[in-house]
């Protein structure tokens, strides 16, 4: 379990411009990009430009900014995929299944009944 933020985590490297990714949206406080192993077509991740491991360490201004970016991404997903159903998912801690220890929100055009079957 991660207790100190690791500056070399994969999302930190993206924010530093050290590794490539498919950008969906960016502003001064957030970044959204395509998940490399999508659980459904159009699976997007939204991250804050803050060194937060999980929800516990997320500052209020970044929490608000992440949610506003999630709204934008979801609106685009609804248009592009012509579906209402979008899952917003966010894992805290290795026990919950978190694998990248920079806070991130999943936005997945899917259904809870179909998740895991893709
Ligand atoms: P977690 O299980 O921590 O909530 O989700 C981490 C997510 O990051 C996974 O869905 C995984 O596919 C995604 N991921 C891991 N490494 C990379 C990467 O190098 N690039 C991108 N775009 N996504 C990644």
TrEMBL record:
A motif (Histidine triad motif) lies at residues 102-106. Keywords: Hydrolase. Transmembrane segments: none annotated. The chain holds residues 6 to 123 of 146 of the full protein. GO terms for molecular function: bis(5'-nucleosyl)-tetraphosphatase (asymmetrical) activity. The active site is at 104 (tele-amp-histidine intermediate). It comes from the Bacteria. Its EC number is 3.6.1.17. This is Bis(5'-nucleosyl)-tetraphosphatase (Asymmetrical). GO terms for biological process: nucleotide metabolic process. Residues 10-117 form the HIT domain.
């Amino acid at each position: 379990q991660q207790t100190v933020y690791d500056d070399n985590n994969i999302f930190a490297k993206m924010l530093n411009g050290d590794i490539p990714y498919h950008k969906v949206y960016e502003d001064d406080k957030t970044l959204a990009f395509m998940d490399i192993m999508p659980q459904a077509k159009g699976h997007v991740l939204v991250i804050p430009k803050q060194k937060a491991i999980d929800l516990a360490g997320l500052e209020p201004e970044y929490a608000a900014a992440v949610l506003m970016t999630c709204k934008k991404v979801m609106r685009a997903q609804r248009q592009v995929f012509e579906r209402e159903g979008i899952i917003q998912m966010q894992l805290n801690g290795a026990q919950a299944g978190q694998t990248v220890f920079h806070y991130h929100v999943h936005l997945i055009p899917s259904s809870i009944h179909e998740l895991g079957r893709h």
